[in-house]
Amino acid sequence: MTETPNTNRLVVLDIVGLTPALLRHMPAVAALGERGFKAPLGTTLPAVTCTAQSTFLTGELPSTHGAVANGWYFRDLGDVLLWRQHNALVGGEKIWDAARKQVPGYKVANICWWYAMGADVDWTVTPRPIYYSDGRKEPDCYTWPPTLHDELTERLGPFPLFTYWGPNAGMPSTQWILGAARQVFDEHDPDLTLVYIPQMDYEPQRSGPQSDASIRAARQLDDALGPLIDHFLAAGATVVALSEYGITPVSRPVDINRALRSAGLLEVHTQDGMEYLDPWTSRAFAVADHQVAHVYVRNPDDVREVAKLLGELDGVDQVLGPMGKAAHGLDHERSGELVAVADADAWFTYYYWLDDDRAPDFARQVEIHRKPGYDPAELLWDNTVPNVKLRAAGQLARKKLGFRYRLQTVPLDPSAIRGSHGRVPTDPDHGPVLLCSAPEHSTETIAATDVKALLLKLAGLPPTATTATHATAPEAAAHTAAPDPAGDTDPAAPPTPAGDTDHV
Length: 504
Prior knowledge:
alpha/beta, eight-stranded mixed sheet, four-stranded antiparallel sheet, 14 helices, disordered C terminus
């Protein structure tokens, strides 16, 4: 009879934006590395939440798991959708499936990692607003099992959604998540606890990763994490802290969709004087996601023209075609025909209108599901609106009374953004990092595709054949692919130094 392996309790803290540079201001988290080990962590291209987390949990690149960004153009729906939540969107074998092959009763808690809805785990907690029929949106969360909702909210209060994202984003949402993680860990005894910690996603984008405000935010987070890490360790758990990406300084937004529109490639339709992206009729448009943009080109005959236009656009470092996408593990049907990568000090807006008076009303709101791209300006207050915070408070009061309201808090000038991510970083000091309390599993570096295998080892479960090391992109991601003629999909072409364009 085969013996069932003994498992070790494991807690994985996904500390967004954690880098060696910020660790210098976070002694409690840094102590994990001193107790065990610390290693640079190779990330994915794009280095964004949904892609990196999916790679950590499956050991696969986007070419297999399909999370090619935080959102993409759903060709069968004719719509751009970001921040979908259903776990069925992620292909590949998840870590809990691999664990249960050896330990059928292996128990997993997911506290706010992405793609939580419908995941085959034992406990799920994820932000989920209440959308009332009159258009109101109120903070709340989704849990599995349903009884967990009241267990958490009776003790912690409602999930503070408006500090999870938007101009008020900050520590309260992280404190709630940390409280939920401890409560589930103590009262339900999961074997694996996954915890998403968003605090360092905010200030480094607003004011830059090394600003005084970002350093204060890092210290504040460290103060909150110290007791929790000690609690997990005292309970006998192995603790891992890792990051999906490092936020790096930026100074200039790149209006990639405006360039496509000015070239006659992107189309809009108008309602009530507001312009909306028309992906059905556009010859080309971009889904901007921080420093990476998937560019969808309807007609293959236009690919070369679009690639040339993008390659000449100020702020674009690389344009990846078929070979470039394959070299980075992005050759998936959800990817754009082209993938643009911004210069190190630049990032992509989603803006497609040429006149701000024609912008849709959601452009001035925190509206992550209607914008056809990521908008970091949602973290800012629009200081062109007189008394913007007071006016926003008044509109919220109207909402509470049941009146319709239209908030205008988000600026249409995003130049105040000082940090971004998505490119593979060239400076390890500003790249992602992994720390672990178990020194016997130390490694000098680790690829994103190897995180799943490492976690299984830390849990006392030897990797199965499907969790062996896969071909990884971190090394190749520091380069761009060789010149890529249209239609040439030879994956064996050698990479060339960063800065060359993958011509198509």
